[in-house]
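User: Predict Disease resistance RPP13-like protein 4's structure from this.
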Amino acid sequence: METQGRQTKEAFSRRIENLDGIIDSSLMVKEFDEALASLTAAFSAGKKLENRVLDDVAKAIIEIDDLIERKDEKASELKEIITKCIQQIRDHKAMFIKGKEITDKEKEKVGGTQSFGDELHWLETGVNQVKDKLQENTIKMRYNNLDPLLRRCLLFLFVFPGDAVISKRSIIYRWIGVGLIKPNKSQTAEQAGEQCFKMLLLSGLILPISKKHDKRPRCCIFPSSVKKMLEEVLGTKAKEVGFYFKTYDKEDLTAEDNRANDRPLSCLRATKDEQSVIVSSNPKTSELLSLFNINAQYLKCESDEFSKFKSIKVLQLGKWQIFSDLQLGKRPIFSDRHIEVADTKFLESLGTMKDLRYLSLQGISRITTLPDSLERLTNLQILDLRACHNLEALPTGIGLLKNLTHLDVSECSLLDRMPKGLSSLSGLQVLKGFIISRNITRNITSDSCRLKDLAVLKNLRKLTINIAGGTIANDDLKELTAFETLSSLTITWGQVTETLLEQKVTVTPPKSGSLHALEKLDLQCIPQHEKLNWLTPGVFPNLKKLYIRGGGLKSLNLGTNTGKWNVETLRLKYLSNLECNHWSDIENTFSSLALVEIYKCPKLIEKKLPSHHHGGTVWIKINGEGWIPVKD
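Assistant:
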C-alpha cells in the first residue's frame, strides 16, 4: 500500500509538471506536496490522539473497578474519576483542533504552524475507528478484570443471540444447573446468583432492562459487541475456560471454531428456512454438559437418541424468550410463543440423565403427564413446567426428588390437585402454582397434598397459590399461620360464582404475627368486596411490598388504629370499585411509602392524588420534593 501510494503521488506530480507553461507547475507541485504532508502529519497526530484517549479511559476503568472491588464505590469518588476522564478527552480534542498535537518537527516538514481546525472532515472515519477501538478495548479490559467465576458466568451466556433479552431468573437457574453457582454459609444458590448478576451489570458487560422506578432489573440485554468478544475468547482460550460450544442444525451436530477437549455446551437452533429441529446424537453426545433450545418451535425427539444424553446437567427445551418485540421507545410485547413436540415419548428417557440439575419444559404443548422415570432424577434442583397448558398431573413419586429447590407449575391450567409427595421435598425453597382445587375438600384422597402439608417445608421462601374458581379456601388459608419462613406470598383467586358474591364473601387470613418473615404480599382477583380488616401490621409486621390487583374490593383498611406499617411499595391495579376519601389517608396509613403505583382504579384516581394524569401512574417519594410522578 505504501509503494502504491508513492507511485500514485509521483504520477500525479509528473502530470502537473507536464502542464508547465499553462500553469505555474512548480508552485502547484509544491502545494500538492505540502497538502499531502499536512494530511500525513494530521493522521499521525490522530493516531497519537487515539492512543492517549485509550490510555486515559483504561486508567479510569481500572480506578472504577478498584473502587467496586473494595466495595467502596462512593458516589463522589466515582463521579470524580469519570469527570476527570471526560475532561481529559475534551482537552485532547481542543489541543488537536488547535494543531498542538502535531510536533514542531512535523510542522517544519509542512512549512508552517497551520491549524487543522478547518480541515477536520477527514476525521469522520478516524473518529468512528477510535470509537470502535475504544469500545472493543473497554469490553476486553472489563472482561479481563472480572474474577474467574464471573468470567465463566458471562461465557455461559454465549449460547444466546447477540442483543437478546434474557430474564435474570433464567440466567441464574442455568448457572445453578451447570454448577457455576452454589450455596454457601450465608446465601442460597439463588442469592449467590443474584450477586453475580449484579456484578456483571456493574461491569457493563450485560445491560439492565427495567422500569425507571425498579431498583432491581428482572432482565438484561446481552450485547452483540460482548458476544463478539466472547467468540474470540472461546476461539483462542476454550481449553482454559473449560467448555466450548456445539450447535444442532437439523440432524447434524457441528462444532464451532473452538475444539477443546473439554465437555461442550450445546445449543439447539432452527435453520433459517425451518422452525423445526430434530434432536439427534453422535458418538460424543454423552459428553454434553447442557442442551439449550434457542429458537426451535417444533421439536422431534427420538427416545433412543435422547437417552444418550447421560451426563447432561442442564436441559432447556422450553421457551426462554421474554419479548417477541422490543424496540426502543415502545412498550415491549411479551412473547406468547409456545413450542410443540411431535411425540412426548422421548420424556421416558429422562430417567437416564442421572446428573440432570435443571430441566425446563416451559411452554411446551402436548405434554399431559410426566413419566415415572422422572423420580430417578435425584440430583434435579430446578424443574420448570410453567405454561405447559396440557399438563394434567404431576408424578406421584415427585417426593423422591430430594434435591429439588425450585418447582414452577404456574399457568398449568388443567392441573387440579397437587401430589402428596410435595410435602417430602424438604429442600424446596420456591413453589409456584400450588393448586387449591374446588373439589379437594369433598374428594380428598390420600395422595393429594393440602396447603397445611407444606408447613413442614422449613426452607420454603416463595409460594404462589392458585385458588380454583368457585371457592374461597378460607380453611386452607388459615393454615398459613405455620409458614414462618415465607418471605414472598402470592394468592390468586379464580372466578367466584354469583351465589358466593351474594353471601358477602369474606376472606379469612392467618392469625396476628404469624407471617413475621413475609416481605412481599400479592393478592390477585380477591373476591372480597368489603374492606380487608385483617390486612394489618399485626399480621404482617415486616411487610415491604403490598400488591392488590383485580377483584371487586371497594375499600382498604385505612383506619388510624391499625398500627404502623413498614410497607415501602404499594401497587393498586385493576380495582374498578376501590375508593378512599383522600390521598392523605393512604399516606398516613403507610407512612414508610417510597413508591406507589395506581392503575385502572377510576374511583381512586378521582381523589386528590399528587400530580395525577392519564388515568394513573407511578409516584416515587423524594426527600425535600415530595411525591414525583414517573413515566415508564
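Confidence is low (pLDDT under 50) at residues 100-127, 250-261, 324-333.
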